[in-house]
Write a structure and sequence with these properties.
The protein is an alpha/beta fold. The protein has 2 domains: 55 residues; 284 residues, P-loop containing nucleotide triphosphate hydrolases (Rossmann fold), CATH 3.40.50.300. Helix content is 38%, strand content 18%. The chain has 15 helices and 14 strands. Strands 3, 4, 5, 6, 7, 10, 11, 12, 13 and 14 form a 10-stranded mixed sheet that branches. The chain starts with 12 loop residues before the first helix and ends in a 25-residue tail after the last strand. Belongs to the RecA family. RAD51 subfamily. It comes from Brassica oleracea var. oleracea. GO terms for molecular function: ATP binding; ATP-dependent DNA damage sensor activity; double-stranded DNA binding; four-way junction DNA binding; single-stranded DNA binding. Its main location: nucleus.
């Protein structure tokens, strides 16, 4: 707006010509001078200068917008940027279409809760034909803990989309679009992701999954933790830039750890407690928090928490710029993760980031791991 030409504004022709004759061409040229300097330079009366400055300011300034209109534009832009549908109606609605392109999305939860099941279903969705709500692309699946199961992916496809997967050769084609890498060390993983940038563009990759980042850094609380935290910082920066550069969703799973009784620090997106301390309840699961630390927590754009309370699995939108904190009950069937209700319950206070792991011993294995 500052470079808008004065000659294109609704000034009097005589005044516009005087500005041009003195080589004052843009709004920036005019507004960087005081009214007295303009009056002296242009040899024009103060009233005419004030009128001209007012018109130039109005033409160069962006129009006023309400908070509501800005939010509507942001929502529209989110849709235009693209999303990977989860095929969970309530969750997709809360996330404005699904897992967003160009950012990091994190799945946090205890072992056996369904994180890998979620990732495999996303991999299936990304490789699925566009006509059926997929992205019709390839997937790079970094399977650190060897939990990926092609049999499970095919089973999900056959149960969820029978009209497509029963077509001859379709199951094998979909499974063939998912490239599984199994790094054996952090250095092996680092080398792999550095080689991904070019291949992602060449091979029409539409999703990168890392399951799990925590396993690669499992020794962070042992001697040398400071060095590993430094390495994590490098990986955070690289993965964020890779997501933005390739405009694809990057989904990373994170595990949980026990919270110390004297641990009082909280993430900035968590609700503050009256006394600054976590309330200690009688059950052990009240002391579970996401691993990897606060720098990682701030790096992810979307955080989905998977937990279990009294035998009921729940997926929570704990962090999202486009949604309030919501909780959806779910279960795992042969089709994969399914919501029991598309209406999310809004969360407040400590319930947003508390992670529970009670009563999920009824986990079902479908030819693979349910974690």
């Amino acid at each position: 707006m500052a470079n808008k030409l004065i000659g294109e504004m609704d000034l009097l022709k005589r005044i516009s010509n005087i500005f041009a004759a003195r080589n004052i061409i843009t709004a920036k040229d005019a507004l960087s001078m005081t009214e007295f300097e303009l009056m002296e330079l242009l040899d024009v009366g103060m009233k005419e200068i004030q009128s001209a400055v007012r018109l130039i300011s109005e033409a160069a300034s962006p129009p006023c917008q309400s908070a509501r209109s800005l939010l509507e534009q942001k929502v529209e832009n989110e849709y235009l940027l693209g999303h990977l549908p989860t095929h969970l109606k309530g969750l997709d609605s809360a996330l404005c279409g699904g897992i967003p392109f160009g950012v990091l999305t994190e799945l946090v939860g205890p072992p056996g809760i369904g994180k890998s099941q979620f990732c495999m279903k996303l991999a299936l969705s990304a490789s699925f034909p566009k006509a059926y709500g997929g992205l019709d692309g390839r997937v790079i699946y970094i399977d650190v803990e060897s939990k990926f199961s092609s049999r499970r992916v095919i089973e999900m496809g056959l149960k969820s989309f029978p009209e497509v997967f029963h077509l001859e050769g379709m199951a094998q084609e979909m499974a063939g679009r998912i490239l599984v890498l199994r790094p054996t060390s952090l250095s092996d993983f680092t080398e792999s992701i550095q080689e991904l940038k070019e291949s992602i563009l060449k091979n029409q990759v539409k999703l990168l999954v890392i399951d799990s980042m925590t396993a690669l850094l499992s020794g962070e609380n042992k001697p040398g933790a400071q060095r590993q935290q430094h390495q994590l910082g490098w990986h955070i920066s690289f993965l964020k830039s890779l997501a933005e550069f390739a405009r694809i969703p990057i989904v990373v799973t994170n595990q949980v750890r026990s919270q110390n009784r004297d641990e009082t620090s909280q993430y900035s997106f968590q609700a503050k407690l009256k006394d600054g301390f976590e309330e200690h309840t009688r059950t052990y699961d009240s002391h579970l928090v996401a691993a990897l630390g606060i720098n990682w927590a701030h790096a992810v754009t979307i955080r989905l928490v998977l937990e279990s309370k009294s035998g009921q699995r729940i997926i929570k939108v704990a962090k999202s710029p486009m949604s309030p904190p919501l909780a959806f009950p779910f279960h795992i069937t042969s089709e994969g993760i399914s919501l029991l209700s598309d209406d999310g319950a809004e969360l407040k206070g400590r319930g947003i980031n508390n992670i529970h792991a009670r009563g999920h011993s009824d986990m079902i294995n479908f030819n693979g791991d349910c974690s």
